[in-house]
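User: Modeling request: complex.
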Amino acid sequence: MKKLINSPDEVLADSLVGVAAAHPSLTVNSSDRYIARAGGPTPGKVGLVSGGGSGHEPLHGGFVGYGMLDAACPGEVFTSPVPDQILAATRAVDGGAGVLHIVKNYTGDVLNFQMAAELAADDGVRVEGVVVNDDVAVENSTWTAGRRGTGATVFVEKIAGAAAELGADLGTTAALGQAVNDRSRSFGVALTPCTVPASGKPGFELGEDEVELGVGIHGEPGRARGRLASARELVGVALDAIHADMPLSGEVLVMVNGLGGTPLIELYVVYAAVAEWLAGHRVWITRNLVGNYVTSLEMAGCTITVCRLTPQLTHLWDAPVVTPALRWGR
Amino acid sequence: MTTSPVPTMNGDSVDTDRARTWVQAIAAAVDQHKDHLTQLDSAIGDADHGTNMHRGFSAATTAVAAMEPDTVGAALITAGTTLISTVGGASGPLYGGAFRAIGKALDTPTAGTQQLAAALAAGLASIQKLGAAAPGDKTMIDAYAPALAAFQQQAGAGADLAAAATAAADAAEVGMRSTTPMQARKGRASYLGARSIGHQDPGATSTALVFRALAETLGAR
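Assistant: Request completed. Predicted assembly structure:
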């Protein structure tokens, strides 16, 4: 294992010290383990709390700030946060209008957020949740834990965050977050595995000429192993899977997201292929993100997320946002 | 230990010390098998089960060592609460909730075989309620359910605690091995579909450690 760390057990704690030092707009509560806006809760505004295992940076801490999240709860690497953290963050950001939990659909995340929501309700905090499950690589059936939450989490956090900033109430904010999730789909491809610092070994093995198709963001293997092919062909596999699940049309928001170990030049090669494929299917990209937003440590590869926009969603996407990882309009 | 076991109708019982010893014994077993649990988890999960269980049971051992429990269950409730606060993932709420349920059913200074059987049943009910998994889904339930059935059968036949717990531990290990040919239907392993077949479930493996630790605790005189 070759990593820029001090000790495998201190990666999260050390990184939170760095986050606090680098971003004066954020406050890091190191005992309760959450990252929040430095100014405290905004009175009358719905608070947004997300969280999940660490190792996906900038998700979620990098999206705390004006127009997006109020707090993020980082768990250990690839391990969901515990209810105590989520409860502390929920209490801290409640400005009296209730708190929305944005949760990626993994058994651990769902269970821990559920426990925290019950505890917060006991304290009189109104909590609603949106469970993000955009990954088409997992068959959604009684035979699995359901689809995973991946790239669409960024869209949900941005658009629900904008709505809350504009004064939407808890129910409306939750409904918008749900709508974004329902209109979004993702598919991931991995070229290399990644290594959790505490384990020291790669999560799986891939040959020089192999790719993992439909990979998740926790170093877990995907739905099938394939041969390495051109970016254009791999994009075809991903978009075919998305299109088969949710027929694409009209205006879309696209994110080509690097998993941590893929250079930006390759992500632009992928984006070109995505734009070409979509144009060929008479689907128009009106908004996009290209970069590392939901990573999986040092894994090479990318996820492609497509959201079918509406004028309202486009308006909320364009609304001002000021976070370490997304910043525009103000 | 200076006190002799409190006599009950069938001659043996769990007391507060043994409840605490059970938690410590699990921590020791998890410590010993940490790498194995993580290795099993990296095959079909996300390679953190050993690390997370180790962090949780180390904290639980510290927590129960610092208390003076007045019921058998008190230490187990504390252990459960500590697990929920420290483990994370699905294992935190599932194991934590189970130990809390077991503890709540043992609200007396000592407990006999029948009472422990009922408490272990409450633990399984907690896991099933939270995780919504059934036997055959390739989860910790595939070790827990047969262990409980074996314990209940022994308890019904009038066996002492040590014999019932040993039968439970044996059944848990059989159940653990039975997960290898199963296809996962819950948790992160379910994303693998048929590719989860051929790997032993890490959760069932740690559950077998929990029951073996119980057998060792209750077998020790």
